[in-house]
Design goal:
The chain is α+β, with helices and mostly antiparallel strands. It has 18 helices and eleven strands. The strands form four sheets. Strands 1-2-7-4 form a four-stranded mixed beta sheet. A three-stranded antiparallel beta sheet has the order 3-11-8. The chain has a two-stranded antiparallel ribbon with strand order 5-6. Strand 1 and strand 2 form a beta hairpin. The radius of gyration is 23 Å and the shape is globular. The protein starts with 22 loop residues before the first helix and ends with a helix. The structure holds protoporphyrin IX containing FE. Protoporphyrin IX containing FE binds next to helix 12, strand 4 and helix 17.
């Protein structure tokens, strides 16, 4: 068995010492010395890293079924009741939930049903900025974006807003943050087999605390919904507009369902969807806005497009999306340089031969989309933020202009590819262009230093730091704090933001 090239490993820890806090950066650096397919041993865990579109295609398409599973960890198993969908191996349970996600939970009917809610949440979000703008106060955009995406997904799942002022909503938001954080942290016990039962870093205690908070909250929500359903049934009330919880409870109560769902499955699914949906969408808008603040010329072109398509008399809405190609291109360019999930992460279920090398079963695979997105072999001027490269009218770079977002072009996989690709792509691509368009249509953004952070001054304006923060996803290191300055007349903003 010839493994792919590999640096020298140390006893016990293998290559762990080569990893810095931003793992996709470390993988790029190692790959630049050892080639596009490398093998690493992280403690006792085998890992391969691929860093070209050709390898991405070979591994994720040609050998799709081999790499159809995902990594597990002590935190993931406990916090997802060992019943996760996003971390499940490819099998009957995963297929069953995939079907429900595609056709019901995140299907067209559900997306249309929740369109008015997304609109209302967006207007509420703009309202926060509008009221701050009236008194010239700054807003932490990072936190507001997380509230927005959290509210949208909470409404779809539980018909509740997570940022209403009662205690439960705050717990829900804190738990999501804690879960995403702990999933992305490095737990020695997951990598060094003989440390499996030792808890050096106090991980287990933290996991149990999060578990108890989360489990208590969900138990309460599920029980009260079950009681409401019982009451409605006995009063023969038909409830048409179902949310995720109703759909999942229907499946749980269906004795003929292909798979008998349990309460734990439902709780695990909530965690999967909350954590997968919240950070990713919020991070995308923040990077896009940060790039636009750094590049006023791009911002100006975007505003010209909005002005032409939407005008000044109303706020951008989802039905405008198809007519906003430049906004769509800005989002693609944001995904190229700042993919919220920087690496497609899978696990092999059997041995497999790639380019003459053997990749053993149970190896973790990371396809480094972040480094492919910045590789001059695949992109002209890769370090520049140039949305034009994705415009259909761009004849100079006809390769990039035809690249779509749905996993067919292996140099650009922000939502992954194939069966395990992101089921939330339609929801994300409905709400992201409108949110970004409305933010830059309604306001100018005057950057303010977050406490302890120095801002650089570029060509007459602030230049934001584009460093990343370590974790499962790749957000900006510092929160984005700005004073919003209204751009639309008050007779347009007043009624919209009054809700
Ligand atoms: C900008 C927004 C988003 C980005 C960039 C993103 C990206 C991704 C990526 C890269 C994957 C792994 C794909 C693969 O292995 O091939 C994934 C999986 C997943 N995403 Fe998203 N996502 C986003 C939004 C959402 C939303 C809004 C939801 C749900 C409402 C969601 C739910 C999921 C789930 C459940 C999985 C696991 C699927 C499986 O394992 O089969 N995502 N996402």
């Amino acid at each position: 068995h010839q493994l792919p090239p590999s640096p020298m490993a140390l006893p016990i820890i293998g290559h762990l010492h080569l990893l810095g806090p931003l793992i996709h950066h470390s993988f790029r650096d190692i790959s630049s010395r050892y080639g596009p397919l490398i093998y690493l041993r992280l403690g006792s865990v085998s890992v391969v890293v691929a860093s070209t579109p050709e390898l991405a295609k070979e591994l994720l398409k040609t050998h799709e079924l081999t790499f159809s599973s995902r990594k597990h960890s002590i935190a993931i198993d406990r916090l997802t009741y060992n019943s996760s969908f996003a971390f499940a191996s490819y099998g009957p349970y995963w297929k069953f939930i995939k079907k429900i996600s595609t056709f019901e939970l995140l299907g067209n009917r559900m997306l249309n049903q929740f369109l008015p809610i997304r609109k209302q949440e967006l207007h509420h979000f703009l309202g926060v900025f509008y009221s701050k703008s009236k008194v010239g106060e700054s807003v932490n955009i990072t936190q507001e974006l997380i509230k927005l995406s959290n509210n949208i997904i909470s409404q779809m799942m539980l018909s509740m807003r997570s940022s209403d002022t009662n205690g439960e909503s705050e717990i829900a938001r804190t738990v999501v943050r804690e879960v995403t954080q702990i999933f992305g942290e490095f737990n020695v016990s997951d990598f060094i087999w003989f440390c499996k039962n030792i808890d050096f870093q106090g991980f287990r205690k933290r996991i149990e605390d999060i578990y108890n908070k989360y489990d208590g909250l969900l138990e309460k929500l599920i029980t009260s919904r079950e009681q409401l359903r019982k009451k409605n049934r006995s009063n023969e009330v038909v409830h048409e507009a179902k949310d995720f919880l109703d759909i999942m409870l229907d499946v749980m109560e269906d004795k003929n369902a292909e798979i008998r769902l349990t309460r734990n499955h439902i709780k695990a699914l909530f965690l999967d969807f909350f954590t997968a949906a919240t950070d990713t969408t919020a991070i995308t808008i923040e990077w896009a806005l940060a790039e636009l603040i750094n590049q006023p010329k791009v911002l100006e072109i975007a505003r010209e497009e909005i002005n032409k398509v939407v005008g000044n008399g109303r706020i951008a809405q989802e039905s405008d999306n198809p007519n906003l190609p430049y906004i769509q291109a800005i989002l693609k360019e944001t995904f190229r340089l700042h993919p919220p999930i920087p690496m497609v992460a899978r696990k092999s279920i059997q041995d497999c031969k790639i380019n003459g090398y053997t990749i053993p079963a149970n190896t973790l695979l990371f396809v480094n989309m972040w480094s492919i997105g910045r590789d001059p072999k695949y992109w002209k001027n890769p370090s520049l933020f140039q949305p034009e490269r994705f415009l259909k009218s761009n004849i100079e770079d006809d390769l990039s202009s035809s690249i779509d977002i749905r996993g067919q072009h292996f140099q650009f996989l922000p939502f992954g590819t194939g069966r395990r690709s992101c089921p939330g792509i339609s929801l994300a691509m409905q709400s992201l262009p409108t949110t970004l368009a409305a933010m830059i249509q309604c306001f100018d953004w005057k950057v303010v230093n977050p406490p302890g952070v120095e801002l650089n001054i570029g060509d007459h304006h602030h230049v934001l730091d584009m460093t990343e923060r370590p974790g499962l996803t790749a957000p900006r290191i510092h929160d984005l704090v700005c004073i919003p300055v209204p751009r639309l007349p008050s007779d347009v903003l007043d009624p919209v933001c009054a809700n």
